[in-house]
Amino acid sequence: NEDRERAWRASRETKLEPVPNCEACARPTAEEVRGWAQSFDKLMKSPAGRNVFREFLRTEYSEENMLFWLACEELKGECNKHSIDEKARTIYEDYISILSPKEVSLDSRVREVINRKMQEPSSHTFDDAQLQIYTLMHRDSYPRFLNSAIYKALLQGASRSSSES
């Protein structure tokens, strides 16, 4: 229990460090920023949108949801069996294991499915879990993101720069 608490504290402390952009992306246009309010899918399909949303999640201490989702997306693009095994084990250790300070919140049914699939990992081992986390972010974090100072400031800045050009 002490180890878990120490790991939890360490993970919270690292969240205070500046976060590097997880993806390279161009500055979003005002139209793109406004589009993020129209649908969560638009936000998640945009590299810039994912970066801004990740920054917001970080303020809510739930950045691991985006990191897990991105790791699953990367795994899906993998074809090499050895790389799939390696990445699947890393994802499991980083986000699924109850010993991980970055553990994502999943129901027991999904955990059981993952534990079975980990016997022979594939690029789709975490599909159910990824969908559950995507849904959680959509229903829980996304509405707060749209009302956040981070999004409102970006929207205002993007609108201002588009009216100047």
First-residue to last-residue Cα separation: 57 Å
**What's the CATH topology label?**
Regulator of G-protein Signalling 4, domain 2
Number of strands: 0
Unreliable sequence segments: 8-23
The oligomeric state of the chains shown is single chain
The CATH class label is Mainly Alpha
Largest sheet entry: none
Tally of helical segments: 9
- Output the CATH homologous superfamily: Regulator of G-protein Signalling 4, domain 2
- Structural class determined from secondary elements: mainly alpha
Helix content: over 70%
GO cellular component, one term: nucleus
Subunit structure: Forms a complex with G(alpha)z/i2 subunits and mu-opioid receptors; the formation of this complex results in mu-opioid receptor desensitization. Interacts with OPRM1.
InterPro entries: RGS (IPR016137), RGS_sf (IPR036305), RGS_subdom1/3 (IPR024066), RGS_subdomain_2 (IPR044926)
Pfam families: RGS (PF00615)
TL;DR?
This protein is mostly helical and 165 residues long.
Protein model, in words:
The protein is mainly α and 165 residues long. It has a single domain (38-158), classed as Regulator of G-protein Signalling 4, domain 2 (Orthogonal Bundle), CATH 1.10.167. Helix content is 71%, strand content 0%. The protein contains 9 helices and no strands. Helix 2 runs antiparallel to helix 9 (149-164) and helix 5 packs across helix 8 (127-146). It starts with a helix and ends with a helix.
